[in-house]
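Colleagues,

For the teaching module next term, I've prepared a clean inverse folding example: a structure given as tokens, and then the sequence designed for it. I'd like students to try predicting residues themselves before seeing the answer, so please don't circulate the second half yet.
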């Protein structure tokens, strides 16, 4: 199966949820998405910029086998995000220290030029200059998918709008989909638009099939929220790469996202991999 390059952040996340102690964990959309894709059988390579504080990623035994050859090591500390949720598990605020991630746009453009025959996924988050990256992917004729994150979507969706119809798949939540429809003038700007809505049914809009909503199963114990949407996206891409129909891929992706919320987060410090 062809390698998929995942452009986006890998970060140190500090999670605050009402009624829960603060969590300090490994995160970032590129990590969650690539890990989910790899678990579903895809050859996934994160193209991210990190500092020396995340030099142990390759040895973290909690991660699946990933292709780390496109990881850029910068002199600054890795990006750090402090994410606040409300009682409905909705993001209410994100405090950022981009650090090494400020090198991400330049690194992504270099990777695109060097690997233009590969398939790409772009996690459209600050500080990535998503418009510049999408323009370069389009100019080079690359196949790509992308997703957004609600706190930055009001800025990044209109900036990305001129290139969205070149994507194969776009992943959004319900609020982001409203922005997407507004700025592109249509609810389905590319062949497949996957729409999630928290615990409510997810659906995929395609040119050929009516949407078949998939409702997430109830999870008795939710251990983490961050990364569930990225897990869904990575799993969906892996199964579509194996030519499963969109509805079947979405069903498996929703199941994977549900399992992710029940899994313990990648808390820091990470355990060491046992020597082989």
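(Answer key — instructors only)
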């Amino acid at each position: 199966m062809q390698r998929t390059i995942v452009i986006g952040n890998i970060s140190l996340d500090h999670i605050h949820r009402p009624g829960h102690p603060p969590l300090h964990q490994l995160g970032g959309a590129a990590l969650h998405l690539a890990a989910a894709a790899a678990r579903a059988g895809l050859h996934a390579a994160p193209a991210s910029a990190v500092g020396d504080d995340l030099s142990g990623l390759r040895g973290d035994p909690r991660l699946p086998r990933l292709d780390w050859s496109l990881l850029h090591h910068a002199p600054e500390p890795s990006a750090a995000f402090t994410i606040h949720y409300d009682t409905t598990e909705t993001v209410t605020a994100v405090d950022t220290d981009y650090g090494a991630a400020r090198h991400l746009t330049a690194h992504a453009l270099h990777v695109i030029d060097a690997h233009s025959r590969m398939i790409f996924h772009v996690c459209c988050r600050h500080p990535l200059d998503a418009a510049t990256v999408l323009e370069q992917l389009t100019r080079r004729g690359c196949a790509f998918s992308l997703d957004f994150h609600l706190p930055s979507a009001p800025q990044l969706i209109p900036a990305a709008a001129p290139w969205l119809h070149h994507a194969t798949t776009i992943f959004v939540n319900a609020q982001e989909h409203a922005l997407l429809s507004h700025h592109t003038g249509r609810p389905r700007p590319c062949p497949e638009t996957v729409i999630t809505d928290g615990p409510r049914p997810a659906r995929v809009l395609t040119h050929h099939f009516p949407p078949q909503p998939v409702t997430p199963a109830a999870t008795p114990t939710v251990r983490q929220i961050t990364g569930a949407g990225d897990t869904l996206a990575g799993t969906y891409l892996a199964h579509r790469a194996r030519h499963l129909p969109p509805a079947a891929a979405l069903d498996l992706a929703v199941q994977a996202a549900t399992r992710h919320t029940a899994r313990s987060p990648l808390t820091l410090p990470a355990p060491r991999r046992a020597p082989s």
